[in-house]
Model the fold of this input.
Amino acid sequence: MTSFPTISLRHPRAHDIVDDPIEIAGVGTGFEGTLQVRVRSHDGTELATKHFQAGGTGIWGNFFLRLDVPGVPGNPHGTLEVFEFSAEDGSEINKVVRRIVFGRSLRNPYTGFAVHEVKTGDTLSAIADQWYGDPGEFRTIFQANRHLLEDPDVIVPGQLLRIPQ
Done:
């Protein structure tokens, strides 16, 4: 028999660039239907947290909420956690953790991203010059695509890069 996870986080997906407020959606059940969401910066500092209702003990419920992140994180990388508390000892259980990218840390204000397909001869500096008029903005493109890129000097034709707007 297959069991369902207590929390199924549908949005954001891993490495998504999120806006502020962060929109969070999924399906879950928790002790008395209460779940918690928390956003952390790249160094683990808690930026925002919120309790919310999703189903109940033994009952599944869809959830959708928005979570405001105060200020602009200094580093674009962080995590989003959704979990419930144990009724016995108050510990965090059934936790789902997603790596996310804070859009406003890349471009403020952040309004989404375009997609650029890497062509032979492209460099991040040349792509930044094309999109932003400033080759030095290659760092923004690199940070938006860290899930694909390990080195800003190594990109491959055919890669689809997110260009924050």
Q: What stands out?
A: Strands lie at 7-11, 17-18, 22-28, 34-41, 46-53, 61-67, 77-85, 92-102, 113-117, 160-164. The domain at 112-164 is CATH 3.10.350.10 (Membrane-bound Lytic Murein Transglycosylase D; Chain A). Helices lie at 103-106, 124-132, 138-144.
